[in-house]
From TrEMBL:
Superkingdom to which the source organism belongs: Bacteria
Keywords of this entry: FAD, Flavoprotein, Oxidoreductase
An example molecular function term from Gene Ontology annotations: oxidoreductase activity
PANTHER family, A to Z: GLYCOLATE OXIDASE SUBUNIT GLCD
Residues covered by the FAD-binding PCMH-type domain: 47-225
Co-factor requirement: FAD
InterPro entries the record matches: FAD-bd_oxidored_4_C, FAD-bd_PCMH, FAD-bd_PCMH-like_sf, FAD-bd_PCMH_sub2, FAD-linked_Oxase-like_C, FAD-linked_OxidoTrans_Type4, Oxid_FAD_bind_N, Vanillyl_alc_oxidase_C-sub2
Name recorded for this polypeptide: Glycolate oxidase
This protein's record includes keyword ATP-binding: no
Amino acid sequence: MLMPEPDRATMARRDEIVAALRAIVPGGVIDRAEGMRVYESDGLTAYRQLPLVVVLPETTAQVAEVMRWCGANQVRVVPRGAGTSLSGGALPLADGVLLGMARFNRVLSIDADNRCAVVQPGVTNLGISQAVAHLGFYYAPDPSSQIACTIGGNVAENSGGVHSLKYGLTTNNVLGVEIVTIDGEVIRLGGRHLDSEGYDLLGIVIGSEGLLGVVTEVTVRILPKPATARAVLIGFPTSESAGGCVAAIIAAGIIPGGMEMMDRPAIHAAEDFVHAGYPRDVEALLIVELDGPKAEVDHLIERVAAIARDQGSVTLRISETEAERLIFWAGRKAAFPAVGRISPDYYCMDGTIPRHRLPLVLSRMREMEAVHGLRVANVFHAGDGNLHPLILYDANKPGELERAEAFGSDILRLCVEVGGVLTGEHGVGVEKRDLMGTMFNESDLAHQQRLKCAFDPDGLLNPGKVFPTLHRCAELGRLHVSGGKLPFPDLPRF
Ligand SMILES: Cc1cc2nc3c(=O)[nH]c(=O)nc-3n(C[C@H](O)[C@H](O)[C@H](O)COP(=O)(O)OP(=O)(O)OC[C@H]3O[C@@H](n4cnc5c(N)ncnc54)[C@H](O)[C@@H]3O)c2cc1C
């Protein structure tokens, strides 16, 4: 995978850059290789690169000063939260400053009356729910990585989780942010109120993968904890019947708190690991959770059970206690590590399809297993049509990583082919960058890059991510291919 060519002149100025950062963030600069090693990759561990230097600011003023200095001196910057990104969004650059936001770890205020909290970007996702739990509140989007990932990373990736079907993704649960631009300007977008005047710049920043600015404060919506939650565990003889059940539940006007599906390999891996009591003789397992007032939940769960029977379920268990509900979820929540026990390595994909194409996509994936000679375990947010195929491989076997990547690309192309999109919640990063052309044409991409140029005209913030081709901002708007020759042939095209 090609990344922007490191700028030799910048690398030659390393001592000067380290000294400048030390003056801005005394005690917060790491420049020795052994200290920087932990930052060399994120959750997409197939790719590694030591940064030029790591800086760990503690205040917005320090972030602004770092950004202003880097902007003025044409030094690239890669923001980082907890480094759990699965798309390589926080992959460092050899000539770039890695800006770690881990020290921004305080909950600044909780406003129960207005159902919001103001937090620093390095607070973990779960940390927000823990901070407001004593008031009976929680923060709804719940990535499986919630124990580690930060809200700043969630904003950058527009992360989701099991409960996003009913409660939305990060973009539906963030009311405001403070960001610092590459020229050191501090901007506040949104706030404790609903909606803003003017363009929806908050909507643009959420999901911008660290390419537009560094998030230094987040105002999140907090919700009262539902009075009751119950789950039903439903086994099906085919993935078609499970997919049919998902569609029928939604068609009946029921929006579950979560609706997750696992295929046979994932069911077996999870059951072997967690002993959640999952049936082993089914092809697909659905976990459907209903939450809200008790009377409503008890009523809806019976309706879901009836729909499941109509759709051909072969096993069905409804949780009778909170402990049982948690056991139902334990296997799903541990599905990734469980798959890690049956394969030396796995590659977690993330694509979204229209729900009704689930059976087709699952059967096409089975055909692809034969083509690529690798197995897949499927775990996904069925209600959202958000797939997470886990491609099993062994990095120590020559060529297997490349085959896993080729398999992954084929799955994502299939998602787009059936009317879906390249990512549901993990972002584009470097992982899906070179596939952007399957979804967008040159003109679409040029429009998106114009937006990037408005924030970062010199392309210094997280370059090499998201866009398959670097464009100079001055060039945009005039991208005409004449006689088969691209303009600006000297620009790197990844
Ligand atoms: C086991 C596992 C399970 C996962 N499950 C889910 C899941 O269920 N749902 C889901 O959506 N994701 C999931 N993820 C992916 C990942 O946890 C999310 O993308 C998460 O939001 C990343 O947060 P982070 O703090 O680790 O960010 P990082 O990995 O450090 O960075 C991610 C991106 O955000 C940018 N960034 C980070 N902080 C800032 C900031 N303050 N300002 C500007 N840009 C910033 C980075 O430049 C990078 O582009 C999972 C990951 C793992 C390893």
